[in-house]
Amino acid sequence: MSLKIEKLSKKFKDRPILKNINLEVEDGEFLCIVGPSGCGKTTLLRIIAGLEKPTTGRIFADNRLITGPGADRGFVFQQYTLFPWRTVLENVTFGLELKGLKEDEREKIAMEYLKLVGLEDFKDAYPYELSGGMKQRVAIVRALANNPKFLLMDEPFAALDIQTRNLLQKELLYIWEKTNETIIFVTHNVDEAVFLADRIVVLSARPGRILKIFKVEIERIRDRLSKEFLTLRGEILKILEKEVKLR
Amino acid sequence: MKFLKNFLEALTIPVILLTIWSILTFTGLIPSYILPNPYEVLIAFYNLLITGKLFIDATSTLLRVVTGFLIATAIAIPLGVGIGWSKTLETLFNPIIQILRPIPPLAWVPFALLWFGIGLKAEAFIIFIGSFFPILLNSLDAVKGVEKVLIEAACTLGATESQVLTKVVLPASSPGILLGLRVGFGIGFMCTVAAEMIAAKSGLGYLIMESMRLLDTGDVVVGMLTIGLIGFAIDYLLAKVEEKYIPWRGKTI
Amino acid sequence: MDKKWIIAAIIIIVAITAAYTLQPKTEEKVIRVGHLKDDHHSALFIAQAKKMYEKEGIKIETIEFNAGPDIVKAAATGQIDIGYCGTPPAITGIAKGVPIKVVAAVNQEGSGIVAGNNTGIQKIEDLKGKTIAIPMKGSIQDVLLQMTLKEHGINPEDVNIIEMQVPLMPKALEAGRIDAFIAWEPYVSMAETKGYGHTILYSKDIWKDHPCCVVIATDQFIKEHPDLLRKFLKVHIEATEYLNSHKEESATIVAKTIGTDPNIEKKAFQNIKFIAIPTESFINNVIKFAEIEKQLGYIKKDLTKDDIFNLNYLP
Predict the structure, then answer these.
(1) CA A244 to chain CA centroid, nearest Å
(2) Is-contact C47 C236, C-beta < 8 A?
(3) Fewer CB within 10 A of the terminal residue: chain A, N end or C end?
(4) H or E element: which one contains B238?
(5) Over chain A, what is the mean pLDDT?
(6) Strand-pair partners of C64
(7) ipTM score of the complex?
(8) Do C133 and B197 touch (CB under 8 A)?
(9) Is the whole model's pTM more than 0.95, yes or no?
């Protein structure tokens, strides 16, 4: 199962945002997309999710052409998107409800995932009672419980403080190892990308095109201060600096 | 203890008003055919209560208000949700809504009389006009105001368009819709005076108008206060319903 | 900076208000007269049209109201000095302690019971089980209706009597929403002329010479400007005489003033008796009316002639 992006470009009212993106995502890999602000990385992710349409080019998920959003591509947004009128448990079972699963089945699946992030005690809480970090965990688990083929994440930890962010990064890796999801993760934080990814796609400034793809072969759990980590980080940062200077 | 304190605080302004009112009327500064003194109001209240007239008038008014309000709700909520959700419906209905909305319910009285004759239908119609637009517009705004990102999240979880409508848009707009109901009821209730001008034989508005003509100012005040108290009680009930069923309202996501 | 401007603004507003209210009243007093858009009050319209007030050397200002009780209320709060209104609101006001007096008569009769053409109602007995509209409880029309029903042996409970605003009555009758109404001219003549109703009884047939409208004046006006009151009433009498001697011409003038069809107005004038100086019988009828109002429970006091009338300013 893989994702194939062919000759994708995006213009918004004559303003080019993405230019000629060609990319293949491997089954089960953790792919990060980084780039300077406004380079169109979020737009690219939303097009993959089917929330926006490309101007030219096509995307295939398992050889099926993508035309709109679907349960096969789960999405974790940057903003908090839990449904405020539903409890944590009801949020997580949302997708399962849509599929028509019975209540006890739904609850069983949901509780498994909630245990993964340590929130099983909060199943009856409402989103307004949770902290930011907790809300994003629930959002991740809600997407995962739906068993999507791809998990798309748009800077999900950007609004959180450093400690929570680091914690959630580790948790995400743990979940990923357990579930074997294919994850496409967009971030502007190079550190985060180097910590998490199998491969890192570096986009240019607007209109975004692929400048370079790095393969990260460091063993997890990665030491942020190790030589290999810092070298790779430095390389990526240099490319990005050039992009920003050119503008 | 805190409850007692809040209760007493809430009483300060009414007590001040009552004092001013008493001074103005008992000293004869304002004659009783313009404003009755508190004692006269109490007597009037007692008489209206004992003869059962107040009860009949109150239930009469409530009957027509509830009837008009329920019919307005049944039409305005689906219509408002539909217009908020579908651009086609919005283009279709918007012009006529904008034209009809500013017309005060009182202006509809001659039409009510001609179309529905005299009786509950005509009166409920006036109440209906009063309640309809607040409910419609609040529902419409609530649906339009649903955060786009919630809808997108639902789509990425596999929701179809109708599932988005029923499982996301409707729950998300329920605070706005409920607000529309509260406002709509309040306004509909205020229209009872206009409604009861169409040849009603009982009702709180009717009581007020009759008593005004006969310069029975005590009855007028009782009628006004009763309308105020009932309106307040029902709004309070609706607020409590909101608290119980929508505990998450107003709190950030 | 802001505070200074606010204080300056307040001072200016207070100064202007004070100057306005403390102005010595060197100008002539303008008599404020309240009335309805009603051909019963034609004396007022004729007097204005024929410039009778100017000839007498007084100035008046007319204020139109929607109903008699509003005129009495305006008198109670000092917004008018003189009013043309129906006997019932005047009596209600006096019974409640409003400081006014009836200083002259305006008209007798002038109302009628109109039934819809498709209702099959030809006489009072036919009203049983039907719906008839009255202007309001305690009005002359209400009392007249009660009187005639009783006379014809009909229990008022067997008739569906409802209150309605008079301007709505013609349309309601036409649309079949009511079977009949009792109201003042020109609505009675209007129904006949326009062809949707027929008169089954004129008010004069129920109670001959019954009082209808009167002129009231506030106690304060009587006390402070007796001379102006005298002059006003002199004009009122003159205008009433003119009405009675020049019916056709007056009907046309009044039609123009209140915006009705002159033909309808001419017909209506046949049904109204304009009278300025109350006769003995007029006075007694008003007192009788007050007694009926008390019997029906609309007022709580017994009123004497001196409670109601102050006729000392008529010549």
Answers:
(1) 24
(2) yes
(3) C
(4) helix B217-245
(5) 91
(6) C35
(7) 0.90
(8) no
(9) no
